[in-house]
Amino acid sequence: MAAHNPCAGQRSVEPRFLAVDFFCGAGGTTRGLIDAGGYVIAGVDKDGKCAETYRRNNPNVSVDRRCPEFLELDIFPATEEYPGGQQRELMAELERLVPQYRTLAPSAPLLFAICAPCQPFTKLSKKTLSDERKLGRERDSNLLREAALFVETFQPELVLSENVAGIKDARYGGIWDEFRRRLENLGYATGTKVVCTSKFGVPQFRKRSILVAVRRELVKAERLADSLSKELLVPERDPDADLVSVAEAIGHFPPIKAGELHDWVPNHRARTLSELNLRRIASAKPGQSNKYMENTEFGDLSLKCHRDVNRKLRVRCFTDVYTRMHPARPSPTITTKCHSISNGRYGHYDTSQNRGISLREAAALQSFPDHYVFYPTDRVCPIAKMIGNAVPPRLAQYFASYLANSIES
Known about the structure:
The protein is an alpha/beta fold. It has helices at about 30-35, 50-55, 85-105, 130-140, 145-155, 175-185, 245-250, 275-285, 305-315, 360-365, 380-390, 395-405; strands at about 20, 40-45, 70, 110-115, 160-165, 190-195, 205-215. The chain has a domain at about 20-240 and about 390-405: Rossmann fold.
């Protein structure tokens, strides 16, 4: 007997597209796909810590109104070196689910969202890692290759992929271009571009690489950049989206103090600060660099290690740490350390609130709706990780809609 699904309900209209969200995490991409009018069949992620957040926030609104399945499975094949691989099991689950929903919504195209974890393609990966973490990073750099096997098997009409801006760098072995060539060889018209999320209604400066693909025999002529039907146009902005500032995105949340959790706003919690860091953020003005720390009413609050590096390199480094966001601009990139003022410009812009941004505010800057609750609600670092790793829902919504509008009826 099938397990009870709390999101199941009365059958509704046919969706614009069906979707599977690979590497779904806490559901940023899935939220965007549903908001674009899609029906998400399943989210795939080996990290079960995201499951509750994913399931409880993403009920579908079409077909059977069920929640997407959360498939806690590893995309790699099981090998002697990596016995934890579950590719066979994942393939079997999708072979069960995809045809079922293809039958329920026969005119809806299938979209695969493939937004692999970005850690192997970031500067942070240069840090000293344990041997186990190094092996994990090396394996994860092949996630797109493994995902391509699922594209080959299920032949979705549409493919959407998002990753860090630098993924095309030759240092990462050409994995992005290889993935694109693989799609082209499978019969897709493809396009890729580095875009800034602030141009798509996301209140955040965040550069990302976008890759879109449509089955060549289905793509509309006006979506093509060449006469050979290979190059797909990729928009650099949403013409209907305004630039959204930090104040517009988070100014409506009630004030809280460092270390405080609001009584009724979910996830509206700010990290506790030491007395020294409270003095630092109390001395900071919105939008300015951390040069202020050298001359405050409390004396010189700058870090000795920063002073030593600045002196050695003869240039000011780490200028964003212990600083406040500018209220009239989009925020800096929201990372997994977005709750910490020592990791970037994550101080609240309101000088009457001496704290970093809350988890709820970080989620808003990622374009999650205010009712999107992250679990467990009593944790800080795990939720900051979910938020920082997420694809901004509004970005996913735009490109999913763009792809759905790129095929002939």
